[in-house]
Please model this.
Amino acid sequence: MVFPERDGGVTGRAVAGRAGRVGGMAGATGGRDGEGTGGGLAAGAGRDAYVAAQNQTFVNNDNRRVEAGAVPDPAVVVLSGRVQGLPRPAARVFEGRVAALGALGGALAGRGGALVTQAVFGLGGVGKSELALQYAHAHRGDYGLVWWITATDGAALEAGLAELANRLCPAVAVLASTAEAAGWAAGWLQSHEGWLLVLDNVEDPADVEPLLGQLGDGGHVIVTSRRDADWGRLAAPVRLGVLDAAAAVRLLGRRTGRDSAADLAALREIAAELGFLPLGLEQAAAYMARQRVAPAAYLQSLQEQPARMHAAGAGAGAAAQRVVARLWDLHIAAIRAQVPLAARLLGVLARFAPDAVPRVMVVWDATREDIDEALGLLASYSMVTLTADAVSVHRLLQAVILAQDGPDEDRRLLDEALDWLHTAIPGDPRNDMAGWPLLRTLAPHAEALTARYPPGTEPERLAVVQNEIAMFLASQGEYTRALPLAERALAIIESALGPDHPDTALRLGNLAVTYSDLGRVADALPLAQRALAITEAALGPDHPDTALRLGNLALTLGALGRAADALPLEERALAIMEAALGPDHPDTALRLGNLAGTYSDLGRSADALPLAERALAITEAALGPDHPDMALRLGNLAVTYSDLGRSADALPLKERALAITEATLGPDHPDTALRLGNLALTLGALGRAADALPLEERALAITEAALGPDHPDTALRLNNLAVTYSDLGRAADALPLKERALAITEVALGPGHPDMALRLGNLAVTYSDLGRAADALPLEERALAITEAALGPGHPDMALRLGNLAVTYSDLGRPADALPLEERALAITEAALGADHPTTGRRLGNLAATYRDLGREAEALRLEERARQAMRRLG
Model:
């Protein structure tokens, strides 16, 4: 089994400068959406080994190769024949629902003009799903697509839409994350007509409301729910109650074939005993038909069976549960007598989430034929719903099963369920994209098992499952779902193996990465530090796993603005890895790239360049030109080029990096947003702000949807979009974005983080652009203080801060105060980038303007000439 872990993530930062008044020359430097370094790593056979992200070319389920980028626009995908995706056939016997079925069909009869939505609600076991199923089967010829999703929560809805995408376009399932596949399916529904979508067992209307708002006018939606919510706001509601007495007797009579006067009399009493609840009636009829038992004999057995009052509390839902609980012992005894394996299987199935347990997961110490026979028997007693691919247990029956078992039996069955799930998880769930469709169906069952184990009693194997599923969810950008699994996995392993075991270090590293994904870098730091200490003590200072821990800690420090502290860790990690694996190994490229990024963060772009170039060459030779790690290497090299004033050289690298990332991870992945933002900033640096704008807007939308409105990366996107607005002369539009970006950054990273200096400086620029230089001044002063404290007095970013503060002084008529700042900024830039760098030219021009303001014309003319010579290199 593989224990995936990631070596840091892809990060980004923006440095926006401002225009000074330099007699027609460009002002202070613009900046970059810098890009961090990192890659993927996984652990297997007791160690974490680096792995790449997804390959450009994959093999789908029928062993055909699927080229990345082969996913078409959903609008152009047309149906070849009808698509039917219903969970099972409709019941042959269906009684007492003529009015409800008519109400359901009435509003759905009209087509076109608007999305038509119907909601069916009522207590558990009343037949809501069957009513929807009856309509769907009766009208399936009216629709090109009929699709059923068990939408108990937002994650289940997303997974069901992803399965729809898989049915319509198999390449989506292989190449896209769950969220991206779901978005593709929603896009298909939005752009086509003649479909029916059933959203079954919705618990919260808020889970489906966003989807209903996105869908177009060409289809119908049926929603079923146990909740008596405000459905009238979203749909035409149909309330469903228990059957009337006559309909209940007809159902029992038709299902059992009993119609004599004596039989009907007994059936009436049975119906009354079961409260006319359709689920209870169906199970009673199935028992009588299967056992060939007369209604009178069944009635006697039922009356001798005590009601299990402990199985539920009060209320209508509890009353329905007691009805099913009353049948439990009677029915399960008959099943156990015929096929003991069936009773055991049902107990295990009840431990998972109730819907869509994949049949490939149902494994036991029995042959496949015996398992299929047992499942068929359970279906014949209406204990499960069985399809070719999945098994489902009604929620009401599941609640009863769980209530009947004592603690010892419950634990035994939980452990059996865990064994099934553990065996079913594909190897390397983070990167094996061919296994993603199965993993989407396994994730809710892993979450269900996690919830059923009392804390402190979990087996180690649960931690393995949690770790695998958490890494898969992280690969899909579902960091919030991944977090509780990663936290629980750490607690289990630490309790089982102790605080100093290498596997504890692995779990600490995984949790630290998840915290970083969520923007909680300060919380990640002590975990990364502890993981390194454990690994070094257990495996030694020169082990590749120690290099991994050093690299992860360095990336965390870098994200906290502590690049100087990260540098020796990166250098040591590279030395260890190169000695262990050789100079041409992809993991050596990873370490080279990370070290190059740290050099860039420290303003040593000239030192970073050969490392970034070598990392790219190694990766391309080892993994091929279209591997996702190539996007990372291309992006890092492009940022280094930009730092060195070579934006024209950076542009094709960033374009290629975006193409690779979008093809392999999909259009809505956070890494795609990073690539879009990086490309946009290069376009902006080349004077193409109008071309950059739609990229920045799309990058912001992706990031906010994936990571939330308060994530540091959202602040980055807001800031970069605001800079582009400013470049287009839209300072008023930029202002609220920069204010929001500053607020997010201060809360997430703290008031002394280097990114705070960027945000303060950017906001100050906008204030100045709006003629509010007095408001800009304290922001520029604070930005300078933060930068000097965090990065040191000689860092190139200090030149940017000094120059911007000097321009603000000049705007306020204080050239004498501006002069020493301009002189210091020029000295820093010239030392870092050389006398002939275009940025040095801009510094010369700004200083010349300040000399001119002070009446020092000869000195100004001399500097302006030097500036012109340097600026010619801008092309």
